Each structure stands twice: as C-alpha cells, then as structure tokens.
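On clarity, I found the account of how folds are encoded harder to follow than it need be. For illustration, here is how one protein appears when written out as sequence plus structure tokens:

:::
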Amino acid sequence: MEFALPHLPPIPRIVDAAGSLTDVPGIRVGHASDWKAATGLTVVLCEKGAVCGLDVRGGASGLRNPSVTSPGHRVTLAHAVFFAGGSAFGLDAGAGIMRYLESRRVGFRVRGQRIPIVTGAILYDLGVGNAGRRPDPPMAYRACRNATRSPPAEGSVGAGTGATVGKIFGIARGMKGGVGSASLAKGRLRVAALAVVNAFGDIRDPNTGLLVAGARNGVRGNRLLGTEAWLREGKARGIPRADNTTLAVVATNAQLDREQASRLAMASHVALARCVAPAHTLYDGDLVFSLATGGVRADPLTVETMAVEALCNAILRGVVLARGVAGVPSWRDLHVSSA
C-alpha cells in the first residue's frame, strides 16, 4: 500500500516553537558537522553532573562507557552524553569531550584528580557522503566549544548530518533524517528530549497516523510505500539492510535517583514505538539516555509521561526540519516536488 506525502502543514504543532533540551537548567548542547563527508557529532553537557540512566532496545547498538548508567555503579553522576556518526569509529570522539571537560576541571574526584564521566553512542552513516572521514576527538572538542544554553540547531546538523530513514530498499530510496529537540513544562518542572533519527523504518506522526518520511516508491519517487506493510506481506526478503539507529536523550530538572532515571529511559521508548515503524529492530541500535539534574520534586510518572510527548515531538522535528544531504532528499524536498 502506498501513502502520498502529506501536504503542508501536515504536523504544524511540531514546527512551531517547541522548546529544546537546553530548557532544562544545567544542560548545554553543541554540534559539530562535516557537511562534505555527511557526518557529525552532538554533545550534551551537564558539567555540574546529572543522574544518568540508559535503556537499549535495538539489536545493533554501539556505546561508550555505558556502565556509568548502571544502578550500583560507584560513579553516580555523568558530565556529558554524546551522539556521533561514523559507526564504531565515532566512539573515539569521546576523548575530545574528556579533554574539554578536564580543561574546565570538571569530573569525578579521585585522589585529587577530576575524571570527566562521559558516555555516548554512535550511529551508522558511512553509507552517505565520505565514509573515510568520521567524527574524531578534535571534532568533539569543537562541539563542546560550540555548546550553549540557546536552543540547538535541528535537522541535518551534528550527529544528524548524515542520518537517513526508510532504508528497507536501501538509502537511495530512503529519506533524510536528522536531529530534533523539544520540551514541556509544568510549573517549575522541565522535561525535554533530543533525538537523532537514523531509522531503518519509517517515521509516523502518532497524532494523525500519517507517515511523514520513509521508504519511497523509487529513487526519484515521492510516495511512501509503508515499510511495515511490506514486511507483513513478506515482500522484503533478500533486501539489503544497512545499520541504523534512533538515539535519544531525555532530560529533566526533577529529583530522580539512579533507578528512577533508568525507569525514565525505559518509559521513553514508548515514543520510539509510536513514531518509528518498525522500531527496535535487529538492524537498529535504538536507545534512550536520561539525565536528571535535580532541584524539583516531581511524580516520576508525570515526568515519564511528559518525556514521551517531548521525545515524540523531537523525533518528528528531526525529519521535518532536515535538509537533503549527499543526494538523499528531505521531507521538504519531496513536499515541494509533490505539491
């Protein structure tokens, strides 16, 4: 079954000002992008430390230092989370963040030394642009230098520079993914999310049920085929599947312990299930980090519910605000051609 690309404005609510991850006190976000190579890195800095949780659901994840998110680990606070392109090569970029934080004397105290606690994950973007150029420590250091409390850029930037979606028939028939961010507020409570959307599957607006981006009916096609329908009908056998992932971080100024932060990361995967079709596949590294900076008492269930909505908005913004890169068309490109 084919789905026509929706006409503007298909999801006007998420195109309007939606807040960002930096609405949470103590959070800064920075990007570094290599548009010629179609890759990049996004860093989330929490230099005063934040309780960090993690939940991994995809079958193709790549992580740096995930043990710091584990309940019972001696280290209780993280100082940065990063997302990088370059597949496993991108994990080396974490050293640049360590160097930046060390220069600012940020870190876990050990015998007079300060050890920055940095965790993160990578996405596979080697099939777009120049696979020989990947995020490295100097790029990560630049991303840290670029980090601000201002709303971060969205779309084809940072870790979303080479992100793509809808790859059941290969990248050539897919669409552009990207970085998106959004936040919600309830009194003094802030809950926000940032997502890097590089999914095997399609992206769906859970408010309307419409597909927003995904696998198309040809290299020059402007109609969405519906990946889940093709999988259900068994039409996708033997089709090559590139590595993919949707990476996300949710942040809040609520007071959460490590177990509650882990539960927040776990609950936030509902957003992926609502927006990515299909999500959590063997070919995706889908995961969610959580960061709790503290300061506000809040019901964890309220925080989890707000996080799901914020992350849904962030995922949708990541694809709607992306621009075409390296020959992969964006939602905006195809809307113009189909209008």
Remarks:
- The chain has one domain: 3-338.
- The radius of gyration is 19 Å.
